Structures are given as structure tokens and as C-alpha cells.
Amino acid sequence: MEEGGVVLLGFWSSPYVMRVKIALEEKGIQFLYKEEENIILGKSPLLLLANPIYKKVPVLIHNGRRRWASKGEDQEDAKQEFLKSLKLLEEELGDKPYFGGDQFGLLDIALIPFSCRFHTYEMYCKFSVEKSCPKLMKWVNKCNERKSVAKALPNPYRVYDFVMEVKKMLGIE
Ligand SMILES: N[C@@H](CCC(=O)N[C@@H](CS)C(=O)NCC(=O)O)C(=O)O
Question: Where in this chain does the record put each GST C-terminal domain (predicted)?
């Protein structure tokens, strides 16, 4: 796996890749771009390793790491980085019920699906989102009270079991 910095695996005609490129440029984040030469008929080993489930681009690789596979110091670093991102979101949320204010909006819809992975991260990295980011967790619970969200999101325990299965399949301890 690539070491150091941000690597973007992409394909020239993919709008999903284009939007990541735009976001990285806008944020002033330097990145190494790697074109998937043949996204339809053959995937590169790096893509298969970095995105073994979906095998799709875009894929962002940061410091050559994948959170589920990391161990020891690497895992601790990944955990701290993840917590930093959560805290950034929490700051943005502030005391508002939703990211846009009183109304459930587009940003809530974009972000809430990731909350069903929190349990998995907590189990692997031994921390509590509730303790570290209570306001963010309040937002998660509030969103989950909505029928639309409750219907769409899988049970976090099911996500955890799935990740365990994938790790087993990939031979990751
Ligand atoms: N939901 C994904 C979609 C990514 C996607 O569909 N990527 C296409 C390129 S436009 C891909 O990698 N296709 C390869 C394949 O389906 O095997 C996203 O928003 O990033």
C-alpha cells in the first residue's frame, strides 16, 4: 500500500472522481493521482486492496492506511484522526439540532449513514463516540428518530458482523 500523503485512485471520465478532485483542490490538499487504466475489464491490485468490497473509484488513500486493518500505533493514530474529524463535525453542528439549523437537510442526509459504522469503530478502537462527542451523538439519535433514517440505516451490529466477516475473508487479524 502507498506510503505518505494522499493518493487518489480515479478514472478520467468518472464524475465521482471529478468531485473529489475539485474538493481536494479547493481545500488545498496535495495529492498523487493514479489513473485506473482499465476500470471496466481489469482493476489494479492497489484498487482491489484499497476497496476490496466495491472495487470502484474514487478511492482516497491517506498515509497508505486502512482503519480496519491497522494495528498498534497505526490504529491509535487512525483513531485520533477519526476523533479529530468527529470533533470538527461536532464544532460545525454546535448546539443546533441539525447541521443546517432546525430543519433536517441535505448535509444531515449525507452524513447520517456513516453513523451506523460508529459501533464498529468503537469496538475496534476502544472509544466511545458518546463520551468524546456528546452533541454529535445527540444529533445521531435525533436523526434516528426520523422514520426515513430509521428505515434506511442498517443495524450497527449487523455492520460490525459484516466487517468481521470481511476481515476474515481478507485474512486480516
Ligand atoms: N457511489 C460511488 C460510485 C462510484 C462509481 O460508480 N465509480 C465507477 C466509475 S464512475 C466505477 O468505479 N466503476 C467500476 C465498476 O463498477 O466496476 C461514489 O459516489 O463514489
Answer: 23-162
DSSP letters, 91-152, are HHHTT-SBTTBSS--HHHHHHGGGGGGHHHHHHHHT--HHHH-HHHHHHHHHHHTSHHHHHH
**15 CA from centroid of ligand 1 (Å):** 9
- Write down the CATH superfamily of domain 6-62: Glutaredoxin (3.40.30.10)
What is the atom index within ligand 1 of the atom nearest the CA of 13? 10
Q: How far is the CA of 42 from the centre of ligand 1 (A)?
A: 14
| Cα of 57 from ligand 1 centre, angstroms | 5
Quick one: the chain helix, strand, coil %, rounded to 5?
A: 55, 10, 35
The hierarchical CATH code for the domain 71-169 is: 1.20.1050.10
- Give the pLDDT confidence score for residue 2 in this predicted structure: 47
Query: 66-75, 120-129, 160-169: which range is least confident on average?
Result: 66-75
Sheet bearing 6-10, strands edge to edge: 31-35, 6-10, 59-62
CB-CB contact of 58 with 105 (8 Å) = no
The residue nearest atom 2 of ligand 1, judged by CA position, is: 16
The model carries a pTM of 0.66
